[in-house]
Amino acid sequence: MASRIADTPQEWEVTATSTPFQGNKTGVRTDRVVMPDGSVVSRDYQTHPGSVAILALDDQDHVLVLSQYRHPVREKLWEIPAGLLDVPGENPLAAAERELYEEAHVKAEDWRVLVDVYTSPGGTDEAVRIFLARQLSEVEGERFEVSEEEAEMELARVPLEELVRGALAGQLHNNCLVVGCLALSAALSSGGGLGALRPAQAPWPARPFDPM
Predict the structure, then answer these.
(1) GO MF terms on file (predicted)?
(2) How does DSSP assign 27-57, residue by residue?
């Protein structure tokens, strides 16, 4: 059964916009936005192409996680595989399959949409689709060559319950890992189970795409 409440599209008038910074993938935009009382204020936010993340669950209900240094927060975080949508309009499932291969050298036969989120809607337009991937197997052939922070990644498979406990205890902080594990735990305990999850090609209004 669908929730009685749902987010709704809405766009307030923008009288002017500028991009004071544009990086390789993300930028900063400044909009002059008309408020309901008629006043006009500036809103600065990070522009982002969008991301995918993969909660890969094996036959023993262990989740594939990786540890990676994140310089902005000065911590090495446990995360689930994730990556950017490299091309505008890119199919998110194709991007998720690529990231799972590149970061974990794993493929999955069963894919579902677990949950869609905005990471920090007060400061960025980044949207993330978190997939549930099951029926895992190792990919044959050479591993994808990694560099920089990814060269120090550590891979592990951890029971879902342990990750949920770690998130609630304040020991795990990566948003995709925390949201994904809590969402999966909720799905498993609901009446519909995993069969109630959306198909892998479900529409994603935040980042429209063409199905494969």
Answers:
(1) hydrolase activity
(2) EEEEEEEE-TTS-EEEEEEEE---EEEEEEB
Instruction: Measure Cα distances from 4 to 46, 121, 177, 191 in Å.
Output: 31, 22, 27, 18
**Alpha carbon distance 176, 78 (integer Å):** 10
80 contact partners, CB below 8 Å, separation of at least 6 = 53, 54, 55, 56, 63, 64, 65, 66, 130, 174, 176, 177, 180
Q: Could you give the residue numbers annotated as active site?
A: 150
163 Rama class: left (phi>0) / alpha (psi -120 to 50) / beta: alpha
Which one, of 33, 56, 69, 73, lies nearest residue 156 by Cα? Answer: 56
Average per-residue pLDDT in the chain?
93
- HSE-up of residue 52 (Cα within 13 Å, Cβ side): 28
Distance CA 172, CA 34 (A): 39
User: 3-state SS of 117-176?
Assistant: EECCCCCECCEEEEEEEEEEEECCCCCCCCCHHHHHCEEEEEEHHHHHHHHHCCCCCCHH
Residues 31-88: pLDDT tens digits? 999 999 999 999 999 999 999 999 999 999 999 999 999 999 999 999 999 999 988 8
Distance between CA atoms of residues 56 and 65, nearest Å: 8
What's the CA angle centered on 177, arms 118 and 80, to 5 degrees?
A: 110
